[in-house]
């Protein structure tokens, strides 16, 4: 057993990793749907790194996943997608440090907000740059913090919602 938690279930963030590979479930437990999740907001609450996986869960009768260009994303154009996925559970590895654009190509779902833009970083930003909202604790813990290790950068605190 190298690294521990495979599921950060308590906060519903629905992401997991093992051996340093991180997988994010798009939209959390709602999945890839129309009219429920603000995917721009969802993406803003997460950090995406090269090598991470996105998992789109959806009903294939109703939705699909199109990777598109920035222009097509802005216009919600489903013509000439870069990639098209429609198997109901689409897992995509983010292999490059760039902005990826995804839309649903079914009817007007994209215009209704079923669109996702993710900025993929090559490395984690330094901790001081990560906007982690920290609730003010009522009592400061008296124990010293655990030693900082590489794996502690991957704790769900980066993905806290
Ligand atoms: Cu859709």
Give a description of the structure.
The chain has about 160 residues and is mainly beta. It has a single domain (about 1-125), classed as Cupredoxins -  blue copper proteins (Immunoglobulin-like, Sandwich), CATH 2.60.40.420. It contains 2 helices and 9 strands. It has a 5-stranded mixed β-sheet with strand order 3-9-8-5-6. The longest helix is centred in the N-terminal third of the chain and has 6 residues, at about 40-45. It is globular, with a radius of gyration of 17 Å. The two termini are about 25 Å apart. Mean pLDDT is about 80; it is low at about 1-15 and about 150-160. The structure holds copper (II) ion. Copper (II) ion (CU) binds next to loops.
Quick summary:
It comes from Adiantum capillus-veneris (Maidenhair fern). The protein has helices spanning 39-44, 70-75; strands at 15-18, 21-25, 48-49, 53-57, 65-67, 83-85, 89-93, 99-103, 115-121.
């Amino acid at each position: 057993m190298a690294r521990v938690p495979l599921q950060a279930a308590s906060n519903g963030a629905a992401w997991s990793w093992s051996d340093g590979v991180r997988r994010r479930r798009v939209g959390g437990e709602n999945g890839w749907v129309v009219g429920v999740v603000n995917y721009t907001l969802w993406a803003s609450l997460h950090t995406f790194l090269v090598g991470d996986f996105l998992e789109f869960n959806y009903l294939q009768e109703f939705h699909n996943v199109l990777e598109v260009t920035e222009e097509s994303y802005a216009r919600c154009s489903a013509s000439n997608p870069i990639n098209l996925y429609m198997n109901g559970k689409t897992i995509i590895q983010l292999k490059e440090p760039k902005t990826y654009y995804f839309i649903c190509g079914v009817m007007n779902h994209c215009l209704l907000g079923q669109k996702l833009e993710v900025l993929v970083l090559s490395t984690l930003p330094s901790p001081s740059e990560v906007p982690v909202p920290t609730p003010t604790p009522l009592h400061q813990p008296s124990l010293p913090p655990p030693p900082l290790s590489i794996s502690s950068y991957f704790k769900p605190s980066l993905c806290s919602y």
